[in-house]
Amino acid sequence: MPSPTRRPAAAQTTLQVIETIRLTPGLVRVVLGGTELTDFPDRPDTDKYAKLFFPPAGSTLRPPYDLATLRDEVAFDELPTVRTYTIRRVDLDRGVMEIDFVVHGDTGVAGPWAANAQPGDELTMSAPGGGFSPDPEADSILLIGDESAIPAISAALESLRDDAHVTVLLESRSAEHRADLPDSPARVTWIDEDHDAPGAQLVDAVAALEWPAGRVQVFAHGERGAMKALRPILIERGVDRSDLSLSAYWAAGRTEDAFQAEKRLPVGQIFPA
């Protein structure tokens, strides 16, 4: 019997760390560059993201990483860990890519890597995906999120026309975790997180919002439970599905691996199948 045909591994780009910048106590910007940046297939979406590959310490594996093949050849704990992150900016004139990482101490894989990254360290990533950009034809735009959504919301703010009608609702762990946002015509409201129920205050703020007239485009990304709670509110407000980008970046009480695995289960789906 012939072996199953495997899809070829997606194109990957390997860049080098130039510097890191601590934007807030919980947000680290990693500035990357290198010769492969000019071949990176950038896209215009303000929420563009890529899968990042983090090989274990001491790994002898070299990119590009063909995970389908590697799973047959090396032990599970020798495989690179894969995480998905928003690409904050690609600036070919400066020769840099910027990715902002939320950091929770030593928890996780990507955050600690970013917090400890040194110039010259390598980071390999997939070709980017994405799906949202502010629509200049919308009457109003609503951008909703927590600290994990700051990069995508910041990129969206940079793309706005001067006459855009935009409201931003952002939840942060505390005032010191409120990152500086790009200058824009948006009205920005910061909300303090209820540490026992991340996202709950954000949901309440959306429910209490005086809803703008006309066609409203919504970008809402953040904690999974909060995003699921926002879905009926936004539907009730009459937001068309084509004008709604609603997704979870993480889930309270779940490791990243568990969160990713649950995406295929009912508990992990924002929109029921």
UniProtKB/TrEMBL annotation:
Pfam families: FAD_binding_9, SIP. This is Siderophore-interacting protein. Residues 10-135 form the FAD-binding FR-type domain. The lineage of its organism: Bacteria, Bacillati, Actinomycetota, Actinomycetes, Micrococcales. Gene3D superfamilies: Nucleotide-binding domain of ferredoxin-NADP reductase (FNR) module, Translation factors. It comes from Microbacterium hatanonis. One of its GO terms (molecular function) is oxidoreductase activity.
